[in-house]
Amino acid sequence: MAEETQGAWLSPESYAKLEAELEEMKTVRREEIVKKIDAARQEGDLRENGGYQAAREEQSRLEGRIAELTRLLKTATVSEPPAADKVAAGTIVTATIAGDKERFLIGSRDMASLVDLEVYPEAAPLGKAIIGLEKGDKTSFTAPTGAKIDVEILDIEPFKG
Predict the structure, then answer these.
(1) Mind listing the pLDDT tens digit for each residue in 1-38?
(2) Could you say which of 25, 44, 78 is where a domain stops?
(3) Residue 36 lies in a domain
(4) How far apart are the first and last CA of the chain?
(5) What pTM was estimated for this model as a whole?
(6) Which residues are CB-contacts of 9 (< 8 A; sequence separation ≥ 6)?
């Protein structure tokens, strides 16, 4: 995920929530999975042990998420939301996109689990197209499918959360 290596924006509150999630995974969740693996290992033949295989897959997913969160938190730009005069990381944008009105946050995709909004990274095609725009500005961008998509900025507000 490119935005994590570029220092994705996170609010202090979001950073704290993700940091707490990481700590729980590294302590509580890891220990739970180790116990599941040990219990399944005691059941015998590991090649035909569904519980063992499921626990190992769960462990793999957990370790992947731990690595992802560690990288995100290490490289994140943590700050209060910017003023809402221009679209920037940390702003909530209301825009008409291809004729449909949408409201979304510009920030790290990892914030999606923390907010009740769609989240678009600055590095996404939409993010790149609208960063720096003001209310009333119009632009367009090329979607990954090759389609040209028109955008009009209707409102910008700071993210509070």
Answers:
(1) 334 345 677 888 888 989 999 999 999 999 999 998 88
(2) 78
(3) yes
(4) 23
(5) 0.63
(6) 76, 77, 78, 79, 89, 90, 106, 107, 108, 122
